[in-house]
Amino acid sequence: MTMRRLINLKRVEARRIYLTYGIVILAYIICQTMSSTKFLSSSMRGMLVPICAYMVMAVSLNLVVGISGELSLGHAGFMSVGAFSGVATAILLQKVLPFAPVRLAIAMIVAAIFAAFAGFLIGIPVLRLKGDYLAIVTLAFGEIIKSILNNFYMGVDSGGIHFSMLTDTTRLLKGGRLIIKGPMGISGIQKISTFPAGFILVMIALMIVFNLVNSRSGRAFMAIRDDRIAAESIGLDITKYKMMAFVTSAALAGAAGALFAMNYSTIVANKFDFNTSILILVFVVLGGQGNMLGGIIAAAVLTILPEKLRQFSDYRMLLYAIILIVMMLATNNAEIKNFLTRLNPFKRKEEVE
Amino acid sequence: MAKSKTKYVSIPSTTILPERDASREPVLKCVNLGITLGGIKAVEDFNFTVGRTEIVGLIGPNGAGKTTVFNLLTKVYQPTTGTILLNGRDTHGMNTMQVNRAGIARTFQNIRLFKNLSVVDNVKAAMNNDMRYNMLSAILRLPNYRREEIAAHRRALKLLSIFDMQDMADVRAGSLPYGAQRRLEIVRALATNPSLLLLDEPAAGMNPSETADLMDNIRKVHEMFQIAIILIEHDMSLVMNICEGICVLNFGHVIAKGTPDEIQSNPAVIEAYLGRRKESA
């Protein structure tokens, strides 16, 4: 029967999920052993945490772009909300919780909550829009978040936590500490982010996204993406599910932001600008929309690549751009895909369509 | 547009078939339903009643407003005049989603499946509102997630088996052959537990043997689920064979209502389809 020749989606998807978990665990074990046996250079070791953060960003943006089919250009905004709230939480808890891993975990959870709230607020106006309009408005909100954080002051003293906007009017008591210093961001951060913590966050992000996609919510996301009118006609609440995807994605981005920020001693809002949003989108598009493993690999490769190209000094970004173009062409080339399919004994039978 | 000058008489709202028993209370009642689209009265004075478990055909020449009626019933368009009573409940102010939850499910003239989802997931997506587990149980794979998913999967396969599609459950919906896509749309609509099913040209593009299969399937569905069905169709053999009552639309007006036999000999219907004789013009 002809049906047998069609792709069995269930099998393909189950295999893809296990493959993704497997490769991430394997990569972690390899990197961890290499790092502990001093096989990795110090510059590479310093990049392990940012790579993990970018992987989580790629996975979370994939939920919006690949699964829900909405182009979001302001994802770095949620990352910065997470970074600032997470770091501020970690600093506030420094005396109460001397044990760093717990402090990091709490900071990431608080970061996720703040970013989710920001995602919810932004989602109310943004999710009424469709397609290109939605993309442009998310871009604008990304910039708005950046501007707000650039003008935001927060300090703590014996009287509690003080906020101010535009200028520092917190007037802290003696012994108080100004934590967020407007355009100067946060400095004197304790570097408590570790590679194992990053790995755990990647695994949690993957688990959340995969399990969500394979549930009633995930089916609803994809149904709305494939045909909005049909989705409404079967009684799916479009606004609710779009919001759910957007907020979940923002929360994961917030946690990734906290992880990312606590790998550096200073963090400024300008780090999370439009370029960062586009970079994350490039991970998703290069890895394949809806393909988590692809996004993760793209995140790792495109984070390492600029460092590895440092020896070419002035030509570094030129080479980076050329490699990016070649990769985009190669991954979308039907002949190369066919060639790879022929090499893969599993896929040969199923890719007939 | 010479014909639009014809004076149409509004036909009062009555069930097409005489009341047989108590179960024939109306599932749908439209009173003076009308909509103006871009200055044109696409549907006007549409009075229409469908009894519970009745199969009604909605026919008419192209552009008569048949699909517009479906779009009004499912609130894709908000009617400018008139009311729609669904199971005795006014659907005023409801949107497409709420109308579906109130009991109307439909298929589309141009197939609208979730192409990248598997066949069974298309059906399970339609069962979304029946599933009782939240996002947290899904992420943590709690027992109620498993229980509900297994139950939904079983029910979806059962529904698919009515149309002999259980073997295709894990195939991507977009790669199904045309006839199977049409059948899947009906299964998906049924999965929402409707009391009224709207089929928009289900036999379009089908060959005679496929149409005959479809006819059997519609009868089977009607018998199994005991629901009312409104059918838009150009294939007259299908309509005349299956429908208990027929409503004919032309230029947004109901020009005739009755049993298939009455419709076949109705002069207004013949005129709408074939035109007027020269001498009588």
Notes on the protein architecture:
The complex is a heterodimer of chains A (353) and B (281). Chain A is mostly helical. Chain A has a domain at 48-274. Chain A contains 13 helices and three strands. Chain A has helices at residues 9-36, 42-67, 75-93, 100-126, 131-150, 195-213, 216-226, 228-233, 238-261, 274-287, 292-308, 316-331, 334-343; strands at residues 152-157, 160-165, 177-181. In chain A, a hairpin with a 2-residue loop joins strand 1 (152-157) and strand 2. Chain B folds into two domains: 1-103 and 194-281, Rossmann fold, CATH 3.40.50.300; 114-192, no CATH class. Chain B has helices at residues 66-73, 96-102, 119-126, 135-140, 143-162, 178-190, 208-225, 236-242, 260-264, 267-274, and strands at residues 26-37, 40-51, 55-59, 81-86, 89-90, 104-106, 196-200, 228-232, 245-250, 253-258. Chain B starts with 25 loop residues before the first strand and ends in a 7-residue tail after the last helix. The A-B interface holds A 1-3, 6-11, 207-208, 211-212, 214-220, 222-223, 225-227, 229-238, 244, 248, 353 and B 74, 76, 95-97, 100-101, 105-106, 108, 112-118, 121-122, 124-126, 128-129, 131, 133, 135, 138-141, 145, 148-149, 152, 167-168, 170-172, 175-177, 188-189, 191-192.
Order of helices and strands of chain A: HHHHHEEEHHHHHHHH
C-alpha termini separation of chain B: 15 Å
Greatest interface (CB-CB under 8 A), with counts per chain: A-B, 38 and 47 residues
What's the level 1 CATH class of the largest domain in chain B?
Alpha Beta
- Average pLDDT of chain A works out at 86
